[in-house]
Structure formats: structure tokens, C-alpha cells
């Protein structure tokens, strides 16, 4: 349990998860529940913006709040992807017994030193490589946000169509700007960064164990991957499914 709390603290060091931390401190201890509440708050806030603009439905040639499928995809992403990465992170440090099964006789796999602590440092942005990757991801996300903001200023470029989140609708426009900034420039970079950290740290750890001959591959393992099926399951985690579904 101590390890999970430390991992949670590393995840909460990202600004994107500051609202989750706030809800945790007021009593919502479970990550899934705080994430569900935040998604509901986001959906209700944007719905109120649409009501204020009178843009819930914009007729045959428009895209009101309930007519725009994109926004519901974003809500689905906000609801599912953070939960998926939180579970993947917990699984990433729960595989010590599986590595130990592959350990050569008398070998110390040094799990704490060479996997757990590097993963904590990476997720909490305490290594140069981690900060460089996160900066790049945030820059890409911010560029996407800026491009979307620019496009929504000139909805007349799309003939005979009105969008509830364009600059023609003040509340919808500014409400979605805040939401898109959070999603594009904060949340998604944090999700991708954390998932990249899981893959990079496990890959480096496996290379170290192989190079120093501290583990042995099991060619006749029932998982048909030499005993390393757990790594494939970790990399092909629900994070990928959640991103694709969104």
C-alpha cells in the first residue's frame, strides 16, 4: 500500500491531476470516483454554457451541443483514459513476483532500485529525460489547442453550418476553450507521458536483467512468450483501448 501511495503522489504531481487531488483531500479517495465527478462537472458546465447561448440544438444545418458528436468523444476520453493509466501504473509496480519467477538461481533482481524508483522519478518529472518528453508533449498539445481555437473563431469558413463552440456563441466558445486547454495541453500530455514512462522503465529494466544475466527466459512457459507475457499485457494495456475508443 505504501508503494501505491507513493505512485499516486507521483501522478498527482502533474497539474492535470490537481483537481483529482483536491477531491481526494475532501473525501473522494478512489481515483475512479474523483475522475467520474470531474467528468460530470465538465459536462454540466459545458451544457450550461450551451443553454446560456441557446445552442443546444441549432437546426438542420448547425451543430448544437447535442448534435456535435465530438464533444461526447472528449467526455468519454476524460472518463476512461485517466482510470486506465492509473490502473496501468499500479500494475507496472505489481509485477515484482513475475520478474522473480524468471530470476536466475541466487540472483537479486534489484526491483526497487532499478525499476520502482526510476519509474517514480520519471512519472514525477524528476529526471531530465522525463521533463524533456513532457515539455515536448505539452508543446504539441498546446499547438493543437491553438489551432482548434483559431479554427473556431472563423466558423463562416464552413458554409451553411453553425457550431455551438464557435465564436458566434460566447459562452460555448470560452467554455470549450477552457476545457480544450485542460484536455489538449494538460491531461493528454500527462497520460501519454506516464504511459511512455511505464514502457521505457520496464524496457530498460529488462535490458539490465538480461545483460547481467539475472533472469532466464523460460522457453516452455505456458504463456508462449518465455514467461514475459505480463510485459506484453502491460504495454498493450487498457490505455491503448481507451484512447482508440475515444
Describe, in plain words, how this protein is organized in 3D.
By secondary structure, the chain is mostly helical. It contains 10 helices and 2 strands. It has helices at 2-12, 18-25, 31-53, 69-92, 96-101, 111-123, 128-153, 170-211, 229-235, 238-245; strands at 62-63, 162-163. The chain has a two-stranded parallel ribbon. The longest helix has 42 residues, at 170-211. The radius of gyration is 22 Å and the shape is elongated. The chain starts with a helix and ends with a helix.
Q: What spatial order of strands do you see in the largest sheet? A: 1-2
Radius of gyration: 22 Å
Q: How much of the sequence is in beta strands?
A: under 5%
User: pLDDT below 50 for ≥5 consecutive residues: which ranges?
Assistant: none
Shape: elongated
Helix count? 10
- Mean pLDDT, to the nearest integer, reads 84
Q: In terms of structural class, how would the helical and strand content be classed? A: mainly alpha
Tell me which oligomeric state these chains represent: single chain
Question: How many strands in all?
Answer: 2
The percent range for helix content is: 55-70%
Biggest sheet record = 2 strands, parallel
Task: Report how far the terminal alpha carbons are from each other.
Answer: 31 Å
Q: What is the helix/strand order?
A: HHHEHHHHEHHH
Amino acid at each position: 500500500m505504501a508503494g501505491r501511495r507513493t505512485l499516486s503522489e507521483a501522478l498527482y504531481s502533474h497539474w492535470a491531476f490537481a483537481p483529482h487531488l483536491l477531491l481526494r483531500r475532501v473525501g473522494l479517495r478512489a481515483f475512479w470516483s474523483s475522475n467520474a465527478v470531474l467528468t460530470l462537472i465538465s459536462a454540466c458546465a459545458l451544457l450550461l454554457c450551451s443553454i446560456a447561448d441557446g445552442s443546444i440544438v441549432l437546426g438542420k444545418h448547425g451543430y448544437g451541443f447535442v448534435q456535435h458528436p465530438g464533444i461526447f468523444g472528449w467526455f468519454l476520453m476524460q472518463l476512461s483514459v485517466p482510470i486506465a493509466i492509473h490502473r496501468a501504473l499500479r500494475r507496472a509496480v505489481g509485477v515484482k513476483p513475475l520478474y522473480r519467477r524468471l530470476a536466475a538461481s541466487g540472483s537479486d533482481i534489484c526491483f526497487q532500485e532499478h525499476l520502482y524508483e526510476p519509474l517514480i522519478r520519471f512519472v514525477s518529472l524528476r529526471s531530465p529525460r522525463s521533463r524533456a518528453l513532457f515539455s515536448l508533449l505539452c508543446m504539441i498539445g498546446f499547438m493543437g489547442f491553438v489551432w482548434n481555437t483559431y479554427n473556431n473563431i472563423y466558423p463562416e469558413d464552413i458554409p451553411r453550418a453553425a457550431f455551438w463552440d464557435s465564436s458566434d456563441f460566447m459562452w460555448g466558445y470560452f467554455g470549450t476553450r477552457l476545457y480544450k486547454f485542460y484536455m489538449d495541453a494538460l491531461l493528454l500530455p500527462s497520460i501519454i507521458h506516464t504511459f511512455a514512462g511505464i514502457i521505457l522503465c520496464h524496457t530498460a529494466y529488462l535490458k539490465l536483467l538480461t545483460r547481467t544475466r539475472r533472469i532466464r527466459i523460460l522457453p516452455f512457459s505456458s504463456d508462449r512468450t518465455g514467461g514475459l507475457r505480463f510485459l506484453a499485457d502491460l504495454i498493450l494495456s487498457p490505455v491503448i483501448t481507451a484512447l482508440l475508443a475515444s
